[in-house]
Amino acid sequence: ELVGLMMKASSQPMPFSHNILPRVLSFYHHWKKIYGATFLVWFGPTVRVTISDPDLIREIFTTKSEFYEKNESPPLVKQLEGDGLLSLKGEKWAHHRRIISPTFHMENLKLLIPIMATSVVEMLEKWKAMAEKGEVEIEVSECFQTLTEDVITRTAFGSSYEDGKAVFRLQAQQMVLAADAFQKVFIPGYRFLPTRRNINCWKLEKEMKKSLVKLIDRRKENACGKEEKKGAKDLLGIMIGASNTTSNVSVTVDDIVEECKTFFFAGKHTTSNLLTWTTILLAMHPEWQVRAREELLSVCGARDVPTKDDLAKLKTLTMVVNESLRLYPPTIATIRRAKADVELGEYKIPCGTELLIPIVAVHHDQATWGSDASEFNPGRFSNGVSRAAQHPFAFIPFGLGVRTCIGQNLAILQTKLALAIMLRGFSFRLAPSYRHAPTVLMLLYPQYGAPILFQRVSTT
Ligand code: HEM
């Protein structure tokens, strides 16, 4: 059935509309029609139960979460994401989460707004120079990746920013090699063969670990000396501080290295995707762009860079960002494994079963979002997130429960900040070369990039 459906889908041209989900997920809708909201799918030799009923999602992530754990990532993903918060389990995960959480509290992030704004303004100054003589085409997805890399480096490494950036460049090279390897991922044992790609990968891995250990040692020395400044708490500082304190669960240098890898991986592409999709949607819907800009000007007045309080008042922008997260959630799915035999709604789930929660399909479900579920309509969020759908667990771009995204405040803050500064300086529309084709490569990407035409606007 799967092969038949794939052949049928691949022979059909993709229409230009918002309801194009990645192909595999469009199969999901088809299967849901036939089998209902809960059904089995085989991924090679692995069978997964697909769950999109918000009541069952609530059980898995909140009321019965103790019966489930995160599944093991495939080796290639693990290599990139590191052995940090994303994949840790049990007491070690809880300990790291407690230590790292304060870095991402709003009070701490607020201190980072001027630094984030510097990165945004630097990017936009370049665009302004390019748009000096009129409209200019910019491929925004690449620019936003550089921007989010900048921001996550500052958040994670703080005073060791430059060294951190160099380490992250190594990880970016590693990602290129991993993307190449993804095509061979199904050849058993391939990653152990001494191919040129694998040798390069091993070298990079070693080099990165060496650089990170050096960076940590240097930061430790500075912390003992006078160079360490008071200010926002960054991930590296906070982990080093924890490694110096005695506790039942110790934090080693290896742990810090792994967390640094995790945060680069988890923080960069997710947020740049959100920025990219929101820009595309605003370019497609000029009426919302105008509305968001008018609101921005009335809230911020002459302030070029909004404050934290200004950002909280930008209701239209918040609605647009939420609608973008709903239609194009950067993380399209998550997986849980039953740790014991457990009852889930009317089902008996045997220990070891993998449950797939297709976030993107939950967000497009007409049963909870109404008949316009596939349309861009930020107005549905006008009374807040909890009232937007017919079920409070139908909007889950950052996951749910204890393992919800630790970086969501940072992601939303930097997205709103960047969009606000951008809306003030530019009006924008899709370039004629833009082709709408959301595709999945771990996250949800615009397959052919995001070429946008920018024109300076005067707001004085
Ligand atoms: C977890 C999405 C930005 C760090 C998650 C999860 C989702 C998610 C869905 C839960 C995964 C699961 O339950 O299996 C997103 C999206 C983002 C974003 C859509 C941006 C739009 C960030 C940023 C950071 C970050 C900026 C770090 C700076 C993490 C970490 C976890 C996580 C460390 C694991 C938390 C834990 O298990 O304790 N994210 N994320 N994310 N995210 Fe994000």
From TrEMBL:
GO terms for cellular component: membrane. InterPro entries: Cyt_P450, Cyt_P450_CS, Cyt_P450_E_grp-I, Cyt_P450_sf, Cytochrome_P450_Monooxygen. Keywords: Heme, Iron, Membrane, Metal-binding, Monooxygenase, Oxidoreductase, Transmembrane, Transmembrane helix. It is found in: Membrane. Pfam families: p450. One of its GO terms (biological process) is brassinosteroid metabolic process. It is a single-pass membrane protein. GO terms for molecular function: heme binding; iron ion binding; monooxygenase activity; oxidoreductase activity, acting on paired donors, with incorporation or reduction of molecular oxygen. The keyword Flavoprotein does not apply. Gene3D superfamilies: Cytochrome P450 (1.10.630.10). Its main location: membrane. The keyword Endoplasmic reticulum does not apply. Heme binds at residue 405. It comes from the Eukaryota. PROSITE patterns: CYTOCHROME_P450. Its cofactor is heme. PANTHER family: CYTOCHROME P450 734A1, CYTOCHROME P450 FAMILY MEMBER. Belongs to the cytochrome P450 family. This is Secologanin synthase. It comes from Cajanus cajan.
